[in-house]
Amino acid sequence: xxxxxxxxxxxxxxxxxxxxxxxxxxxxxxxxxxxxxxxxxxxxxxxxxxxxxxxxxxxxxxxxxxxxxxxxxxxxxxxxxxxxxxxxxxxxxxxxxxxxxxxxxxxxxxxxxxxxxxxxxxxxxxxxxxxxxxxxxxxxxxxxxxxxxxxxxxxxxxxxxxxxxxxxxxxxxxxxxxxxxxxxxxxxxxxxxxxxxxxxxxxxxxxxxxxxxxxxxxxxx
Length: 221
Fold this sequence. Notes:
It is a single chain. By secondary structure, this protein is an alpha+beta fold. Helices cover 32% and strands 17% of the residues. It contains four helices and six strands. The protein has helices spanning 42-50, 120-136, 160-175, 192-220; strands at residues 2-11, 16-23, 53-59, 64-71, 95-96, 102-103. A four-stranded antiparallel β-sheet has the order 1-2-3-4. A two-stranded antiparallel sheet has the order 5-6. A hairpin with a 5-residue loop joins strand 5 (95-96) and strand 6 (102-103). 17% of the residues are buried. The model has no long low-confidence stretch (mean pLDDT 85).
C-alpha cells in the first residue's frame, strides 16, 4: 500500500532515474489475496513484511520502468506498524477453498481487466488448456516461485496473472527450442507432440489476451 509520498533522482552510476515510493506491506490479507504464498520461504516473507519502499528504475531514453524492487531499507519507516506473522507453507502454490473457488483468487485476471470485459471467459478457458499442456511438458518443474533450478532470471507461469505478462516470452522460447533445460542447464528440444500442443494452446491464450487488451484500450478512448 502507498501513501503517495515519493522522490525522484538521477543515479549516475546506473544511468537511470530512480523513483522511491513510500510503502507498507499488508501481511494480514487472506491467503488467497496474495499472488502466491510468499511465506514459502521464511527469509523472503520476512523481507516482504518489513518492506517500507518500492523502487522504480526508469530508462531516460524510453521513459519506461525497466526494474521494480521492494526494500526494507528505505529512508522512512513503513506506512503501518506491522506485527510479523508466520503462516505455515503446506507445499501448495494453488488450492481450492471450501466453496470450490480456485485460490489465490487474485491471480484469475482480477485487477488486469474490467469485470465486463467480454473476453474474460475465453481467457479463462484458453489459460486452463495451456496450463494442462505446460504440465504435460513439465514446465512447472522449473518455473515456480521457489526456483528449483535455480535460474538467474525466473519467469513465472503457474498462475493466470503471471502467464498474462509472460505469454509472449514463453511462445518465443518454445518456438526457438530454448526450453526446457536439462539437469546441467543445457537447452533441449521438446518432443514434437508436446511442442505442437504447447504452441497451439499458447497461441490461443495469447490471441485471447490480445483481444482483451484491445477491448480495454477502446474503453479508454
